[in-house]
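General statements about sequence and structure are easier to judge against a single worked case. Part of our work consisted of pairing the sequence of a single chain with a tokenised description of its backbone. The amino acid sequence and the backbone structure tokens for this protein are reproduced below.

***
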Amino acid sequence: MFRGASTTGDRLRHQREAGSIDLDMDPRNRVLLWVLLVFLSMIILMYPVRLVFEYRPIQAPHIFQNLPVFLILFSIWTIVIAALAFRRDRSNKAGWEHLVLASVFGLVFLGFWVVITPYGSAADDLYNTAHVKWLMENGTMAVGERNLGYFPFSYFNFPGMHLCATAISTSTGLTIFQTRTVFLVFNAMLFPALLFVLFTRMLPSSRAALLGVCLALMGSVLIVDRMRVFFPSSFGFTLLVGFLVVLSRSEGRLFASTLWDRLAIMILFGGMVVTYLPASLLAILTILGIYAVQLLAREKNALEGLPMMSLFLTIVFAWELTWAIGNLRTYAPFFSSLWESMTSAEFLAAPLSMARANTGASLP
């Protein structure tokens, strides 16, 4: 008995020194936990809510018809994920299981806000679904005067997400709003999965990577806000993470990667350029940061990726120049009217009118 206790103590001490505590679990219990996780995920996604247009300091708790029951379900769901994440795996398949757990976490934590708002939760939802409707009805993108006439400040300059949604709707027969929901739910699962793969290349274990994904999703208001809205940034950030995953295979050296990796990098970067401009610029800045560190460390062949960087910058410039030329005829008259307004001080009329409206007619 004392020998067994000593063995158990040695095992726990070894696990603590390794930085992790594993839970022994019977395979049948593991299957039951997975079934319970799927069941709870479906219940949470379909949990009844009451959406009312009224102001509250914190709105989220007031949408649930029975908040205590939802809290109990969500707490049990979190405990099940933790139990599966910290169980001992002797088959060396924990990485794949943690990958699925990351996707399930994103599905519920991000996808819940998509499912409860099937017709969109913001004006950007309706605005971008209108782009998809235009593509399906006309088969072309609005450029120049049509761009401004039908879609002011149109995102047809960055149609990547809209083209993907149009292809899904055309091939599956789903309505535009159904396509929007399917696209965002799938994106809510793909984004944490890619983020998990990226973290596994930087952290010591897949369990740490899973924890990092959960903390990233829970700790970022921007991720939750963007991933629930049908907006180009939701797809652009997913492409950016995929780009970083492929880039990490060669440790930041573009020309040290394989031919297929370079092809994947070019496709993903091209997707970012036509989907969301800030994502492509972030990719360029990331690579420049890697090369700057390599130059400071005086590594050999640190500048071998500069030709590829030049190609990336050329792609961004060419895409922006193409749309600028297409819209130049529409924008050109604005410059003359802007100059006239600046020289005649007409631009001061609006602030003065607002000031008079708020302080009275005593202002000149």
